[in-house]
Amino acid sequence: MAQDVHAIIGASGQLGTEMALSLKSAGKSVVLLDLRSPSFEGIRDLPFETVDVCDAAGLSACLGDHGVTHVYHLAAALSARGEQDPQWAWNLNMKGLLNILDLAAVSDSLARVFWPSSIAVFGPGSGRLAEQTGHRLPGTVYGISKNAGEQWCAWYRRNRGVDVRSVRYPGLIGTLAPPGGGTTDYAVEVFEHIGSDEPYTCFLDENERLPMMHMDDAVRAALELMSAPRVTLKCEEAYNIQALSFSPRELFEEIERQVPGFRYRCVPDFRQDIASGWPDALDDAVARREWGWRPQVDLTGLVTSMLVARKGNIMPVPAT
Length: 320
Ligand code: SER
Fold this sequence. Notes:
The strands form five sheets. Strands 3-2-1-4-5-8 form a six-stranded parallel sheet, with helices on both faces. A three-stranded parallel sheet has the order 6-9-13. A three-stranded mixed sheet has the order 10-12-14. The protein has two domains: 5-170 and 214-240, NAD(P)-binding Rossmann-like Domain (Rossmann fold); 172-211 and 244-280 and 297-311, UDP-galactose 4-epimerase, domain 1, CATH 3.90.25. By secondary structure, it is α/β, with parallel strands linked by helices. It is globular, with a radius of gyration of 19 Å. The protein is 40% helix and 16% strand. Serine binds at residues 78-79, 118-120, 142, 169, 171, 182-184.
């Protein structure tokens, strides 16, 4: 039997970089697709193709040439960046997804697709603990595109037999590549600031609790969902997954505990308006029941791991 070939679209991004390293470390055959070549040295030896996910023909040729069997489609405009250019964000987020789903519907080799949704599908009215099928009235272009994307995935599953799988990611915190314009980015940025003489200036209110997740859990969630037997996956939507929830104050207090003298201040900007529409936490009972989801990294572990990575000097350069 031919070997599985995993393609990561958006491979130079925050999640794509971590996913690429994880698949490479597991000995999988991996091909990286992005418009920018990877900044992280540890994945530069993997085959890389410059492909625009909005270019259906180029995408089809690339996936065909490499005999791709599994796609992780991670390229997207995030919440804060998307609000600056709504039409661009909608086009990138929707056209990219529809191109992949169309290809998967007709391809003989492409068997399975992972596409991340987000906590941004929720909005005012979802409650502090968002249920799996909770009320959704997203307040950002990013959230609207993820909400619509979930429905497109369900449509392609039902009507075209596409095996597409999805989770609603919270803020993701890792070390290998910078995040790309999200509302939760402060929780990565702060670690770059440690050691500075100035206090870190956070763009959210200090009491704004949001769901968050360490990259190790985020990557594991995708890989476990992708290897779950299809028959056990009953949920028509992207799965709620929960790891931990914290406010800026709670994160900074843990940093201060591990790095005495760390100081911060909060000067909320437009991103606080986005954050205030999002839930504090997600109810992930369905993911736990259907494919055994369990988070592993808690707040202390997350901060320790980020500080250790920073000492190893692999913290990302901030996105401009
Ligand atoms: N991290 C994302 C953002 O802030 C949420 O999914 O946009």
